[in-house]
């Protein structure tokens, strides 16, 4: 009898290797990955295609926003609720097991590799949170842990699994070379979660503090420079022309830009209130401070067809607002 596994694919080397170790034992596997404004499933999908295995992806946007606002097990160095997040992914996977006729779940985690979510106690907690702890297999360090049900039942040969631990990558390098995967994955990939980045973390925490974390604002986190003007007002300035196009797809109103060819940034105003004239003028002044013009040159800013006249102001005047 062939057994079926659901493998959580992050898009990094570890999950690729975990999947391959199961394939080596003739396990039928389906890859599942999750996406939100904070992380993508694109690389996981590519690796699943490389392995020629079925692939599923699931949107976690709403759940992630709620977890970030109220993380039961705290945040990491950025705004990353890793334990809550991994627990959520496992719970979602457990719900799919019956539908996919899966016997167990596997992940690419390595004990001791990350300070928050990949310590032994945390990994046990995450598995327990799934509601199916005995069915969660970690092929890369299975020999360090107590045998799981798939091992005890003989669905998989424990002797062919690994005992990798810590932040070193020596054994992963050996396996990558053994399987010929040198060109397929980034060995030192962090998993691609924006929430682990300290700058993004500050921006996320600012949105939470001011009750502005939602799907739209989450999509803006990597675009431009972010300025917190007041409790109710935030302004984002683009840095490049490609960011102009990106921000205009997300913000369809409350944006300003210079009237001539690209000479300065676009500004997007983030507020839940009705815009005041002062709000618009602050945004126009911010744009002017980042234009290519010399001081004292009059700069024309377009706001929904209305022209605002301003002059360049030194950037340092706004530094206290930069997030």
Overview features:
alpha/beta; Rossmann fold; 2 domains; 11 helices; 35% helix; elongated
Written overview of the protein:
With 323 residues, the protein is of the alpha/beta class. It folds into two domains: 4-193, HUPs (Rossmann fold, 3-Layer(aba) Sandwich), CATH 3.40.50; 223-321, no CATH class. α4 (82-100) packs across α5. Helices cover 35% and strands 16% of the residues. β2 (28-35), α2 and β3 form a beta-alpha-beta unit. The strands form two sheets. A six-stranded antiparallel β-sheet has the order 6-7-9-8-10-11, covered by helices on one side.
CATH class of the largest domain: Alpha Beta
Query: For the residues shown, what is the average pLDDT?
Result: 90
Order of secondary-structure elements:
EHEHEHHEHEHHHHEEHEEHEE
Note the main sheet.
Answer: 6 strands, antiparallel
CATH architecture of the largest domain: 3-Layer(aba) Sandwich
Rg is: 24 Å
- CATH superfamily membership of the largest domain: HUPs
Helix count, DSSP H or I runs of 4 or more residues: 11
Could you tell me how far the N terminus lies from the C terminus, measured between alpha carbons in angstroms? 57 Å
Low-confidence stretches: none
Measured as a percent range, the helix fraction is 25-40%
Trace the largest sheet across and list its strands: 6-7-9-8-10-11
Stated plainly, the CATH topology of the largest domain is called Rossmann fold
How many discrete structural domains?
2
Shape: elongated
- What fraction of the residues are assigned to beta strands by DSSP? 15-25%
- Return the structural class: alpha/beta
User: Number of DSSP strands?
Assistant: 11
